[in-house]
Specification:
Layout lengths: L12 H11 L5 E2 H8 L3 H13 L3 E6 L2 E6 L6 H8 L1 H14 L7 E5 H5 L8 E7 L8 H18 L3 E7 H9 L3 H9 L1 E5 L2 H8 L1
Parallel strand pairs: 5-6
Antiparallel strand pairs: 1-3, 2-3, 4-5, 4-7
Helix pairs in contact: 1-2, 1-4, 2-3, 5-7, 8-10
């Protein structure tokens, strides 16, 4: 799955951008507003609206000299389209769900790297920082099993490999005290998934 824009598996980027704006609000937009918010030209926004309104997915009403466009959420295709344009968030929710169900909970887990930033591609790994709690050994069978099963779930859901960046609580404390450069990357790009939040973890390590 293209991690910069997962929905390109089914539609072009311009249509995705317009649909995402429409899906994110209940109020209508003029075509000019749609183009500006979606980051596409007025002409491209108008083309997408024509295509979608032709299928009944978008409703268009006159508004003076302009037209107001709104996603028709009662359309049978609306829910699948919303699901497509929110695939990245659905991946995050999937990871949170899996991690929350671990029999051996992590002290902390967060998404980082290109997938967290939204600038990856089809070959991007799903990088996840996971911190083992005190007393948990890296070769404990229950711990290894849940790492493997979660990675397999993510791969089936996306086609991308999940790469664990696994540390113990002591190791992350040493990395914080040594001011390792990757700490700044985690702070800048990290998306919280489970356990203690990263700022609290870093504060306790100082």
């Amino acid at each position: 799955m293209d991690m910069s824009e997962p929905a390109t598996v089914a539609m072009p980027r311009g249509k995705i951008a317009v649909l995402r704006v429409l899906a994110g609000a209940d109020h209508p937009f003029t075509i000019r507003e749609l183009g500006r918010l979606a980051g596409v030209t007025h002409e491209r926004a108008a083309q997408v609206v024509r295509e979608l309104s032709g299928h009944g997915v978008v409703t268009v009403e006159p508004y003076g000299r302009a037209r107001l466009c709104r996603l028709n959420r009662e359309h049978l295709a609306a829910a699948p389209l919303i699901a497509l344009v929110t695939l990245r968030q659905r991946l995050i929710e999937l990871l949170r769900e899996r991690l929350s169900g671990w029999s051996e909970p992590s002290l902390h887990a967060s998404l980082f790297g290109s997938v967290a930033r939204g600038d990856g591609d089809e070959a991007s790994d799903i990088d996840v920082l996971v911190v083992r709690p005190a007393g948990r050994e890296p070769d404990d069978e229950p711990w290894l099993t849940q790492l493997h099963e979660t990675a397999a779930t993510a791969h089936r859901a996306t086609g991308n490999s999940l790469a664990w960046f696994e540390l113990s609580a002591d190791e992350i404390a040493r990395a914080v005290r040594a001011r390792e450069p990757i700490i700044a990357e985690w702070q800048r790009d990290g998306v919280h998934l489970a356990g203690v939040r990263l700022p609290e973890l870093i504060r306790d390590a100082v």
